[in-house]
Every structure is written in C-alpha cells, then in structure tokens.
C-alpha cells in the first residue's frame, strides 16, 4: 500500500495548528512536552554511536544523541513525534546516516515525511520564500531560517508544488 | 534489508539496556541554539533582500536612461536624414543603423534583466 503523504501532511498541519505555531523555528520539544513527552539528550552507548535518536514508550521519553548538531537533534525529535502522532506501533531507531544496506520500513518513511512537514510545512516555506525573495536555490539559507539540516530542506523543496 | 518488528524492538531494547539507569533529564536547550541561528539567517536574508531591491532600483533607472539615450539618438538621426541635413547617399545605411540600435535595446534589456534579476528567472 502506498504512503498517504497528504494525510501525513494534514496530521502535521493539525499539530502545528493546535500548538499555534505559524513561523519557524518549529519548537518540536515544546510540542512533545505538551503531550507529556520528555526529550533527553544522551551520549549513545558504545556500538550505537550511529543512532541519532529513539523513543522509549515506557518512559514517554525521546532520546536524542548529545553529540549531534542542534538542527539534527530537532529533526530527530520531530521524526520521533511522527511515530507517536501517526500511531505507529512498531518502529526502528533513527540512524544519523541512513545505512546503505537497510531498506527503511514504511513507518520510518512516514515519520520522515511527518518531520519534514512539521518543521518545514509548505505554507510556511512559501511564505518565507516570498518574504525574503528566495528561490529553491536558496535552500541553505532556508534551512538556516527553519533550523533544519540542509539535505532535509533540499528534499522538502523538491516536494513543494 | 527489511527488518521485522521484533528486530526493531530488540534494537531499542539493546540501547536501553546499554544505557543502564535512565540518565537524568538534561534541559534540552538546543532549541535556543537553533532559534539563534534562525534569527541570524533571517537578518542576513533581510539584508540581502534590501540590497537586491536597492540594486534593482538603481539599475532599472540606469537601464531606462540608456534606452532613452538610444531612442533619442535614433530620432535625431532619422530627423537629420529626413530633413536633408545629412545625406548618407545610400538609404540602406539608415536602415542598418536603426536595426542595429533596435537590437541593442533588446539585447541590453535582456542582458541586464537576466543578470540582475537572475533569481526571478530561475
């Protein structure tokens, strides 16, 4: 079954609407805490240094790798929130660099789409492109404004109509 | 390689086990760093945009001036020829000059607008 991107976009939009967020940076930590979900920064254990984050359902805590850049941490939190808001039952840990030998599960792909639409919703990106006379080629500047990793912004701009 | 659900759960459990006692909550203030970076980027974007708008105003005036000069030159040239003050002997000269000037106008306009307003054309 194909991923329902529109439904995920709408879910992310509803979350933003409920939180009253209309401009970047989208504070995913605040969204998490509004749902009584804690965000903790930890040093990932040995042998798990490539893990960017995961959600511990029992403790209602999102763990993010302390050593990651702030923008990466924010994306990790948004990704884990994606699993929660999309009601995933089973999902993987988020790897910092996608493993070449791993084909990501549907849940992981959906969580990434959610994170992209939570942190860089189409309406907000278009508004800021107009505001500062920016084009799709200004993805670095847009990534800085939205506080997201550059590849994530480049990818999102490809999907914006 | 597709992982099944039990593998995924195992992976998270392995990390939790390796972590031992859950670490004390550290205030996640990374968001402040992200917001500071965003504010800085917005300021730069604002400054860049202001510069571009100023440059656009300045250059559009100059472009208008250059086009005006060329048009006036053509009017004078044609008038001089028409009133018999100038005689090029061969009337094709005037046609060539006018055509050349017309192309100059088009070329100037295209060149400048494409280079100055590059962003709009992308």
Please, could you describe this protein's structure?
The complex is a heterodimer of chains A (161) and B (122). Chain A is built from 7 helices and 4 strands; from the N terminus they run ααβββαβαααα. Chain A has helices at 5-19, 28-34, 70-85, 106-119, 122-131, 139-146, 150-159, and strands at 38-42, 51-56, 61-65, 94-95. In chain A, strands 1-3-2-4 form a 4-stranded mixed β-sheet, covered by helices on one side. In chain A, helix 3 packs across helix 4. Chain B has one domain. Chain B is rod-shaped. Residues 1-5 of chain B have low confidence and may be disordered.
Draw up the topology in text.
The complex is a heterodimer of chains A (161) and B (122).
Chain A: H1 5-19, H2 28-34, E1 38-42, E2 51-56, E3 61-65, H3 70-85, E4 94-95, H4 106-119, H5 122-131, H6 139-146, H7 150-159
Parallel strand pairs in A: 1-3
Antiparallel strand pairs in A: 2-3, 2-4
Helix pairs in contact in A: 1-4, 3-4, 6-7
Chain B: H1 5-19, H2 30-82, H3 92-116, H4 118-121
Helix pairs in contact in B: 2-3
């Amino acid at each position: 079954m194909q991923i329902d991107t529109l439904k995920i976009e709408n879910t992310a939009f509803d979350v933003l609407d409920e939180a009253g967020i209309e401009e970047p940076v989208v504070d995913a930590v605040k969204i998490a805490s509004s749902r009584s979900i804690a965000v903790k920064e930890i040093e990932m254990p040995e042998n798990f240094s490539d893990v960017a984050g995961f959600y511990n359902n029992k403790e209602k805590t999102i763990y993010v790798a302390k050593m990651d850049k702030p923008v990466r941490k924010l994306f990790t939190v948004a990704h884990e929130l994606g699993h929660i808001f999309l009601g995933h039952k089973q999902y993987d840990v988020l790897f910092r660099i996608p493993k070449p030998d791993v084909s990501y599960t549907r849940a992981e792909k959906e969580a990434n789409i959610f994170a992209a639409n939570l942190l860089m919703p189409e309406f907000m990106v278009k508004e800021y492109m107009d505001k500062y006379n920016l084009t799709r080629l200004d993805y670095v500047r847009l990534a800085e404004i939205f506080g997201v990793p550059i590849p994530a912004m480049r990818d999102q701009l490809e999907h914006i109509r | 390689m597709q992982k099944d659900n039990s593998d995924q759960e195992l992976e998270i459990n392995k990390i939790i086990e390796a972590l031992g006692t859950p670490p004390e909550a550290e205030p996640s203030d990374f968001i402040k760093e992200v917001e500071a970076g965003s504010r800085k980027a917005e300021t730069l974007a604002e400054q860049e945009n202001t510069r571009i708008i100023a440059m656009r105003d300045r250059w559009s005036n100059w472009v208008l001036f250059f086009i005006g000069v060329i048009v006036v030159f053509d009017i004078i040239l044609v008038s001089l020829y028409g009133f018999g003050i100038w005689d090029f002997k061969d009337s094709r000269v005037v046609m060539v000059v006018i055509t050349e000037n017309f192309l100059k106008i088009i070329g100037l306009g295209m060149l400048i607008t494409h280079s100055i307003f590059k962003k709009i054309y992308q």
